[in-house]
Write a structure and sequence with these properties.
The structure holds two protein chains of two kinds.
Chain A: H1 3-6, E1 9-17, H2 27-36, H3 44-52, E2 54-57, E3 62-65, H4 66-87, H5 119-130, E4 134-137, E5 140-143, H6 149-154, E6 163-173, E7 177-182, H7 185-190, E8 201-206, E9 211-218, H8 233-249, E10 266-270, H9 272-282, H10 288-312
Antiparallel strand pairs in A: 1-9, 1-10, 2-3, 4-5, 6-9, 7-8
Helix pairs in contact in A: 4-8, 8-10, 9-10
Chain B: H1 12-47, E1 50-58, H2 60-64, H3 66-79, H4 91-113, H5 119-124, E2 136-142, H6 143-155, E3 159-161, E4 171-183, E5 186-187, H7 188-198, E6 202-209
Antiparallel strand pairs in B: 1-4, 1-6, 2-4, 3-6, 4-5
The chains are: A alpha+beta, B alpha+beta.
């Protein structure tokens, strides 16, 4: 791995709100939050944005967390990596899909407790051994797929994230606040409000059409080995990040509340400079299509390197017909 | 559902009443049903029998239909906090309301039609179990947005299923489904598609990113 790749890589994206997003705190809560955090006065929001990765939306005083965007990218990456691995016939690849403890919750932890644990920890270790993500032979422990790819990139307990998300200098296009009342569907069907003193819930939202500058820094990957097997960690992180953004753009993962009702749809697009950086990192053509194609290839190679060998020693996947039905 | 048959549902009030008459039995089963669905969702994740599906419907007729407009006008008036006189919602606002209300209409379609079957809870989620989120998201989009989304999915390796009929429209309903295998060759998106067809929406495209 070259010394250049070990340096932090700064990527800039533009996030366009395709539909209104209900996220962050309303003005009153935002003011309270700022007070609790010890910030007062006119520059309070700016200071908070610098220190805590919170973004203030002018006029309404909304605070949105940069970590919300990181969470969005992480969950999209989990679905994408798992689906890609299943498609390649390599079985589970992401810890949150592994049959141990609660499905849907990330489980990787470093160092991996290998002792005589109990409960969920033991169950998890057994699941790791069963899937041959971890192979224990005598005093030798081989990590084939541990930590899993999303945990390697976005972090896990005991492993710092390679990805830092913060907001850029300002808004590319103004993000305007709006508010509306949540209605109960029975009321809409009847065409009249419920009786008594029940008032509709006031919801604060960000209007569609606003655009936010998002900075993503890839750092701290370390040498090839623990985080990635087939390429430098930065290359894997860039590939996963890019592919996750495409899944967000397709509308499967959205920001804030009422996602299923059409809200929170985003389009994440790189700046020209960032597209060039990504193309360079991945060794791809300097186009969106070129970067996507190469990122797919990088992820597939990484999955094969991690799980190809492990899978060859496993029984074939359970046939669809025998799966549990609803 | 007796009154609907194979024709399109246009009387939402009747639909609502039919669903209400079945609500009694449903309420008693509700939590039990949700637990069964939660277990099945976990099971599909464990077994890898899930995928990502986008259903695209021609929505022009649905958006402009009288029964839809009546519902949107109700919602718009109620949202204006009881004001009787209010200007008609603009095109973008109308689209947002349609997507917002569609899920509510669908809930009643399922309640009236498959009261004893918990499958639909997988798709629409449940506020009684806050962590049990909806697996289907709805949005009205223009043609260029549909093309952008479909191309993004195809670039990830998704299959753009060829449909028998090509349905053209100015606006489309985009439905993102975190899809789950239900058994007997049927997926959750098939159940959803049937319900949406009952509401008069015509499937224009189906894009699937498969696992196994």
């Amino acid at each position: 791995m070259s010394a250049r790749l070990a340096q932090p890589v700064n990527l800039e994206f533009r996030v366009l709100l395709k539909s209104p997003a209900v996220t962050g705190e309303d003005p009153d809560s935002s003011r309270e939050l700022l007070t609790i955090l010890g910030f007062r006065g006119e520059n309070a929001r700016k200071s908070v944005a610098q220190h805590y990765g919170l973004l203030s939306v002018q006029e309404a005083g909304f605070l949105i967390r940069a970590s919300s965007f990181k969470g969005l990218l992480r969950v999209a990456s989990e679905y994408l990596v798992e689906l890609k691995s299943l498609n390649l016939g390599l079985g589970h690849a992401v810890c949150s899909f592994l049959d141990a403890g609660r499905i849907g919750m990330p489980k990787c932890v470093l160092p991996l407790p290998l002792g005589e644990g109990a409960g969920e920890a033991r169950e998890f270790l057994e699941a790791l051994k069963g899937a041959r993500w971890v192979v224990i032979g005598g005093d030798r422990v081989e990590f084939n797929n541990y930590p899993c790819i999303p945990c390697s990139v976005f972090g896990a307990t005991g492993l710092k994230s390679m990805v830092t998300v913060s907001f850029g200098r300002g808004f590319v296009r103004k993000v305007e606040p709006s508010s509306f009342y949540r209605l109960f569907f029975n009321e809409v069907m009847r065409g009249e409000p419920r009786g008594g003193n029940v008032r509709p819930l006031l919801i604060h939202a960000l209007k569609a059409g606003g655009e936010i500058a998002l900075n993503v820094t890839l750092a701290g990957g370390g040498p090839q080995g623990l985080r990635s097997k087939s390429c430098p960690p930065h290359t894997l992180a860039a590939a996963v990040l890019w592919l996750a953004a495409q899944l967000v753009n397709a509308g499967f993962f959205r920001l804030g509340r009422f996602k299923s009702r059409g809200l929170g749809a985003l389009q994440i697009a790189p700046t020209e400079d960032t597209l060039s950086k990504l193309a360079q990192l991945l060794g791809a053509e300097n186009t969106s299509a070129g970067v996507t194609a190469k990122a797919n290839g990088v992820l597939e190679s990484e999955l094969r390197a991690r799980l190809g060998q492990a899978r060859s020693g496993n029984p074939p996947a359970e046939p669809a017909a025998s799966r549990k039905k609803l | 559902m007796t009154s609907q048959g194979s024709s399109t549902i246009t009387d939402y009030k009747k639909l609502f009443e039919e669903a209400q008459t079945r609500l009694g039995n449903l309420s008693r089963r509700r939590v039990e049903d949700i637990n069964a669905v939660r277990e099945a969702v976990s099971s599909s994740a464990r077994s890898g029998s899930w995928r990502l599906t986008i259903l695209v419907y021609a929505a022009d007729d649905f958006i402009t239909a009288k029964h839809t407009r009546d519902l949107v006008n109700n919602a718009s008036r109620l949202a204006a906090h009881g004001r009787q006189q209010r200007s008609s919602p603009g095109s973008e606002e109308l689209d947002a309301w349609v997507a917002w209300l569609l899920k509510g209409v669908l809930r009643y379609v399922f309640m009236a039609d498959e009261a004893g079957d918990p499958k639909w809870r997988y798709l629409l989620g449940s506020s009684r179990k806050p962590a049990f989120a909806s697996r289907a998201s709805f949005r009205i989009a223009a043609r260029d947005e549909v093309e952008r989304v479909v191309e993004a999915m195809k670039a990830l390796g998704a299959e753009d299923q060829a449909l028998e009929q090509r349905v053209e429209s100015g606006k489309y309903l985009l439905v993102n489904v975190v899809d789950c295998y239900l058994g007997d060759g049927r997926w959750a998106s098939d159940v959803l598609n049937e319900a949406l067809q009952k509401l008069g929406l015509k499937l224009a495209r189906k894009v699937t990113l498969r696992g196994v």
